[in-house]
């Protein structure tokens, strides 16, 4: 019987890099165009050092230690929108190109962000719990929610996802402003150079920027104070964009209006203080996850692999800064 390598000896080698908890299989849709090399492959120890492409599954970390293990790697083909798990500076230093999922997840994350915002404002999840608990016949009255239309919404990070969020908010008649690394020349919305001032001028903040050293805890005590007692936070970016301890305290003390959170600082651990709060909607980091988005990211990954092995421009290469 032919070995795995014998049956794939003409297919380009793609090294699959994953943490144990990320058990998504890439094998069936990468073959037969490519030879996905998993750690369980009998040929792994022999072939891995010669692999030119590394494919980290989800947010599996790629750092200098990872690259030391695989010295032949020339390209890291990312499968996620965020890149905080990849040491971009180290890749740049070594001349290793990096790609992301591009815009594959953008529409689904934008939809989810709007869903979380509406849920918090209109108390949809809380109303569901109210009815299921049998409280409607007993209490009759249920606290009113607030409409989305006309709200001043600040977007932190007007990239691919943030731009799509803005488009959706326009349809609701919201007043939009944004903070981003740079002012966008073609964007009509007001630009704020710092998040504090954006929060002070907003009824809600939607956080969808990339996590970096500069944006770590970009939403801090001062920003939450500026947002005010009726303000709402929605985070579909990364948990560490928000100072979670401060956010919990503001919510527990009713010092902001509510929060819709898809991401957390120490996933999958969620602060227990949030469980009992009806003005908080919690989600297990699933804003990106739909069958459609997974199909789209597969296309981006395969496109980047084909481009790399054909010496063509990569589809979603991360720009050096």
TrEMBL record:
<dbReference type="InterPro" id="IPR036291">
    <property type="entry name" value="NAD(P)-bd_dom_sf"/>
</dbReference>
<dbReference type="GO" id="GO:0051287">
    <property type="term" value="F:NAD binding"/>
</dbReference>
<keyword id="KW-0521">NADP</keyword>
<dbReference type="GO" id="GO:0016618">
    <property type="term" value="F:hydroxypyruvate reductase [NAD(P)H] activity"/>
</dbReference>
<dbReference type="Pfam" id="PF02826">
    <property type="entry name" value="2-Hacid_dh_C"/>
</dbReference>
<protein>
    <submittedName>
        <fullName>Uncharacterized protein</fullName>
    </submittedName>
</protein>
<feature type="domain" description="D-isomer specific 2-hydroxyacid dehydrogenase NAD-binding">
    <location>
        <begin position="114"/>
        <end position="287"/>
    </location>
</feature>
<keyword id="KW-0520">NAD</keyword>
<keyword id="KW-0560">Oxidoreductase</keyword>
<dbReference type="GO" id="GO:0005829">
    <property type="term" value="C:cytosol"/>
</dbReference>
<dbReference type="InterPro" id="IPR006139">
    <property type="entry name" value="D-isomer_2_OHA_DH_cat_dom"/>
</dbReference>
<feature type="domain" description="D-isomer specific 2-hydroxyacid dehydrogenase catalytic">
    <location>
        <begin position="40"/>
        <end position="318"/>
    </location>
</feature>
<dbReference type="InterPro" id="IPR006140">
    <property type="entry name" value="D-isomer_DH_NAD-bd"/>
</dbReference>
<dbReference type="GO" id="GO:0030267">
    <property type="term" value="F:glyoxylate reductase (NADPH) activity"/>
</dbReference>
<dbReference type="Pfam" id="PF00389">
    <property type="entry name" value="2-Hacid_dh"/>
</dbReference>
<comment type="similarity">
    <text>Belongs to the D-isomer specific 2-hydroxyacid dehydrogenase family.</text>
</comment>
<dbReference type="InterPro" id="IPR050223">
    <property type="entry name" value="D-isomer_2-hydroxyacid_DH"/>
</dbReference>
């Amino acid at each position: 019987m032919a070995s795995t390598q014998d049956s794939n000896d003409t297919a380009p080698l793609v090294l699959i890099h994953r943490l144990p908890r990320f058990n998504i299989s890439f094998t069936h849709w990468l073959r037969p165009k490519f030879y996905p090399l998993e750690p369980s492959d009998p040929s792994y120890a022999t072939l891995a050092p010669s692999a030119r492409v590394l494919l980290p599954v989800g947010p599996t970390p790629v750092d200098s230690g990872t690259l030391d293990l695989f010295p032949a790697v020339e390209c890291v083909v990312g499968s996620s929108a965020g890149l905080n798990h990849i040491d971009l500076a180290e890749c740049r230093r070594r001349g290793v190109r990096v790609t992301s999922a591009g815009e594959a997840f953008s529409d689904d994350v934008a939809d989810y962000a709007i869903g979380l915002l509406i849920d918090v404002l209109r108390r949809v999840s809380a109303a569901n719990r109210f009815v299921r608990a049998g409280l409607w016949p007993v209490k009759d009255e249920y606290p009113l929610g607030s409409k989305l239309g006309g709200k001043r919404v600040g977007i932190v990070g007007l990239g691919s996802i943030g731009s799509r969020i803005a488009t959706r908010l326009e349809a609701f008649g919201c007043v939009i402003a944004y903070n981003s690394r740079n002012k966008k020349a073609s964007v009509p919305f007001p630009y704020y150079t710092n998040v504090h001032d954006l929060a002070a001028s907003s009824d809600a903040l939607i956080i969808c920027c990339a996590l970096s050293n500069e944006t770590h805890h970009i939403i801090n005590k001062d920003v939450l104070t500026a947002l005010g007692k009726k303000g709402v936070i929605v985070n579909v970016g990364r948990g560490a964009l928000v100072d979670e301890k401060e956010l919990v305290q503001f919510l527990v003390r009713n010092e902001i209006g509510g929060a819709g959170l898809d991401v957390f600082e120490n996933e999958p651990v969620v602060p227990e203080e949030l469980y009992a709060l009806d003005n908080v909607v919690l989600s297990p980091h699933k804003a990106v996850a739909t069958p459609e988005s997974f199909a789209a990211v597969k296309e981006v990954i395969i496109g980047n692999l084909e481009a790399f092995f054909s010496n063509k421009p990569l589809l979603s290469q991360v720009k050096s800064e």
